[in-house]
Design brief:
Distance between the termini: 47 Å
Strand content: 35-45%
Oligomer: single chain
Structural class: alpha+beta
């Protein structure tokens, strides 16, 4: 199933125009890569709009995630880290529907006064590693 994506950025439109015009001169193996890159470049505006908030509660750190975009086309990963050394605490598969909200708590015995970071890693879109939210609870 193909999703339509509105192209709002002039840079994205230029990239796609360059990639499609380059197909005429590219060898067959390179053409597939160029098309894949153009589709990846267009994905985030409509599909990957998330809002992550965090707060310290009595029982630990609470994170809330809201999907402000469209339904995700495939599953991704919700990864939880100790932010000070970027060691992975755990991960869970995730697929968000239109405007879906989720929340989860990290108990005090896991937090143990260390900073906790959350990163959403959609498998269908390449994005650089950067915490979507960080929090330190006493």
């Amino acid at each position: 199933m193909r999703h339509r994506v509105s192209l709002r950025s002039k840079a994205i439109v230029s990239t796609i125009a360059f990639c499609t015009s380059s197909l005429i001169f590219a060898p067959k193996s390179g053409a597939v890569e160029l098309i894949a890159q153009a589709e990846i470049a267009a994905a985030p505006p409509a599909l990957l709009r998330i809002e992550v908030s965090s707060v310290c509660a009595e029982k630990g750190a609470v994170f809330k995630i809201a999907n402000r975009g469209e339904q995700w086309p495939r599953t991704g990963l919700l990864r939880l880290y100790y932010a000070d050394d970027q060691s992975l605490i755990g991960q869970r598969r995730l697929r968000l529907a239109d405007h879906q909200r989720i929340s989860f708590a990290v108990k005090n015995n896991i937090v143990a006064g260390r900073p906790i970071g959350v990163w959403l890693d959609p498998g269908w879109y390449k994005r650089s590693f950067k915490f979507d939210a960080q929090m330190t609870c006493p």
